[in-house]
Amino acid sequence: MIQNPILPGFNPDPSIVRVGDDYYIATSTFEWYPGVQIHHSRDLVNWRLLTRPLTRASQLNMLGAPDSCGVWAPCLTYADGLFWLIYTDVKRYGRTSSGAATGSASLRDFHNYLVTSPSIEGPWSDPVYLNSSGFDPSLFHDDDGRKYLLNQLWDHRPGGNRFAGIVMQEYSPQERKLIGKRENIFKGTPHGLTEAPHLYKRNGYYYLFTAEGGTGWNHGVTMARARDLHGPYELHPQQTILTSRNRPDLDLQRAGHADLVETPDGQTYMVYLCGRPLRNRGTCTLGRETAIQRMQWDDDGWLRAAAPQREAEAPGLPEHRFPPAPVREDFDDARLPLAFQWLRTPWPEELFSLTARAGYLRLYGRESIGSQFRQALVARRQQAHCYSASTVLEFEPEHYQQQAGLVCYYGAAKFHYLYISHDDENGKHLRVMSSLPNHVQTDTFTVPVPIPAGVPVQLRVEVDEERLHFGYRLADGAWQWLPQQFDASILSDEANAPGMPNFTGAFVGMACQDMSGAGLHADFDHFSYEERPYRLNPPI
Fold first, then answer.
1. Neighbouring residues of 517: CB distance < 8 A, sequence distance ≥ 6
2. What is the C-alpha to C-alpha distance for residues 177 and 70, in angstroms, rounded to an integer?
3. pTM above 0.85, yes or no
4. Domains, in order of start, for the chain
5. Residue 192 pLDDT more than 70?
C-alpha cells in the first residue's frame, strides 16, 4: 500500500512524469530558494528529494517578492530527449503586494518561463520567457510533435471573472517563443476559480484536467474532453472526479490540482495536492502536500470519480527504498544539506557560509526577520504534526538590534522566534517574539531570560500539533523550558489577516539579524529534526 501523503509538508501543485522506470514529481516552492522541488521514485511508494533546478539569478530572482509569491505550479514533462520545466514567477498577488489594504488588489504579475535539461539533475538552461497572462502554465506535447502552452487566464477588469478560463497557444522550440493565436478553450464551471490545466491524449480524445473551487476546502479536480485539440470540451458526467468537498470525514482535505501518469503496464495514477488539518484547530500547518492514488477508466472513456485515500493501492512495481533522511545535520559539507532552503535571493553567499568555519553554518546578520529582501534565514519543512528540533548557537550580540536563534516560520507575519540578543538592562538574554496574524496584538514578546556571555547555547522546540514549547540549556546542563505554551496553529494557511495570500507551510530553522548594519554573524553547530508520536504532556 501507498501511505499518503507521499510528499509530506509543503509540497503543493504536483506535476508527475515517468521516464523509463523512473518517476519524478515537481512541486511549487514559492518564495523559498532554490526554486522547484523534484522528488524521485521507482515504485510510486518510496520517494526522495532529488534536486531543485532553479539555482541561479538568470533563472530566478525573487528579491522583493511578497509572501506566497515566487515559484508557482511547475509543470515537468519529457520529450525529444529533454526534460521540459515550465514555471510561474509571481511578482505581485493579493492586497499585501499593493502596499495598502485598499489598493489595486485586482492587479497581478505572473511571468511564465521554460527551462530544459537533458538530465533531471541538470544543468538546466537559462529560461525562455513565454507570457504573463496568467498562472499555472503547462506544456502539452502532441503526437505530431507540435507543442502547446496552456495556462489560467487572469482578467483584472471590474465586474468580470478574475479566473477567466484556460488559454492555449502553440510553442515553437525552433523560434523559442509562442506562435499563432491564443485561444480560450475552457471557461470553467460554476465551481469557479478555474486553474491548473493539464492536457493528455488517449484513445482519440484530448482530456483536460483543471482545478476548481479554490485551493482551500472547496478544491477539486474537474475533467473534460474533446475529439479536437481546440475543442469544444465536454464535461465529465460528474464534473469533479476527485475532491474532499463536503467530506469532513476524510483525513485528506483540500484535494485538487492533479496530474496523471501511467505505469509501463498501463495503470493510471493521479497525483494531487491535499492538506491534513490539525485535529483540534482544523488548520493545515503542514501546508499543501502531495498525495497519489490509482484511478480507473470506465468503458465510456471517463475516469471514475473517487475520494482522496490515506492508503492507496500500490502498482506492484519492484520495491525501491531510499536511505532514510538523517535526523541530525552537522554542516560538515561545503554545500547546504538538501532539506534546507533560504528565502528569495539567488546570492546565498550574502546570507550564509559553510566554509567560513568548518563544521558550522555561519549566518550573517542582515535585515529584520520577515524582510522580503536579504534575510539570513535557513530552514527546512515541518513534515509531521509532532516533532522535536534543536540546534547549538554561538553568538555574542552587543545590542538589541542583533539577534539570532531558532525559528518556527510560515511567513513575515506568522512565526515564533526564540532568539538571543543583548540590551543594557538584561545583558545577553533570550526571549521569544511571536508574530500573530489573526490576533488583536500582532507582535508579542516574552520576558527576557539573562544568559552568560561566551557560552554556546542549545535551543530546542517541541511541537505537538497546536502546542509549541521552547527550551534551552547551557553546555551539558539541564533543559530549561519557557513557561509559555505557544500556538503552533498560526503557522498555517488558514490563520490569516484579511487580504493576505497564504500558500506555503510551516518551516523550522535558524535565523540571524543585525539591523545595525554591522553584519554580526552567528555560528550554528548542527541542526536536528526528528518526527515522533503525539505527546500528551508538555516537556515542562
1. none
2. 22
3. yes
4. 2-312 (2.115.10.20), 328-531 (2.60.120.200)
5. yes
Cβ atoms of residues 212 and 194 within 8 Å: yes
- DSSP of 190-218, one letter per residue? TT---EEEEEEEETTEEEEEEEES-SSTT
- Give dist(CA 423, CA 401) in Å, integer: 9
Question: In angstroms, how far apart are the furthest CA atoms of the chain?
Answer: 77
All residues at 6 or more sequence positions from 441 whose CB lies less than 8 Å from its CB, including other chains: none
332 noted as active-site residue: no
Statement: residue 498 has pLDDT above 80: no
Please say whether the beta carbons of 163 and 154 come within 8 A. Answer: yes
Matching residue, cell 552568560? 452
396 tagged catalytic: no
| DSSP H stretches of helix in 31-116 | none
Are 284 and 275 in contact by the 8 Å Cβ rule? The answer is: yes
Cell of 317: 512495481
Buried b (16+ CB within 10 A) or exposed e, 82-92: ebbbbbbbbbb
φ, ψ dihedrals at 235, nearest 5°: -80, 150
pLDDT category of residue 281 using cuts at 50, 70 and 90: confident
Contacting residues for 232 by C-beta, under 8 A, at least 6 apart: 226
Q: Which of 195, 462, 465, 466 is catalytic?
A: 195
- Predicted local confidence at residue 475, as pLDDT: 83
Alpha-carbon distance values, 229 to 153, 173, 224, 225, 297 (Å): 18, 19, 12, 9, 21
What is d(CA 19, CA 489) in angstroms, rounded to the nearest whole number?
Answer: 39
Q: Spot the catalytic one: 13, 67, 289, 523.
A: 13
